[in-house]
Amino acid sequence: MPVYKYDVTMTCSGCSGAVTRVLTKLQGVDKFDVSLETQKVVVESESLSEQEILEKIQKTGKAAKVSDA
Question: Rounded to the nearest 5 degrees, what angle is found at the Cα of 4, between the Cα atoms of 39 and 23?
């Protein structure tokens, strides 16, 4: 299963909560992890592209990009 990693600027639990809510509602996300401490979001999805997930995260208003690591 494809695993996508993103760097997302989150400053508080409200920020990480917003990202969590969006990914929970997004059809096609099989599993995800949002880490406020490391500013990372990891998403597993069979049916969504890396770009589709990134755009959804960015709609929360958070600065997000595909992680190099």
Answer: 70
Angle 31-32-38 from CA coordinates, rounded to 5° = 160
Residue that is written with structure tokens 């494809």 in the block: 2
pLDDT tens-place string over residues 12-30: 999 999 999 999 999 999 9
| Strand, helix or coil for residue 44 | strand
Q: How far apart are the first and last CA of the chain?
A: 18
Q: What is the pTM of this model?
A: 0.94
* The length of the chain, given as a count of residues: 69
Q: Which position has the token pair 């969504």?
A: 48
Tell me the sheet residues that pair with 28: none
CATH class of 3-66: alpha beta
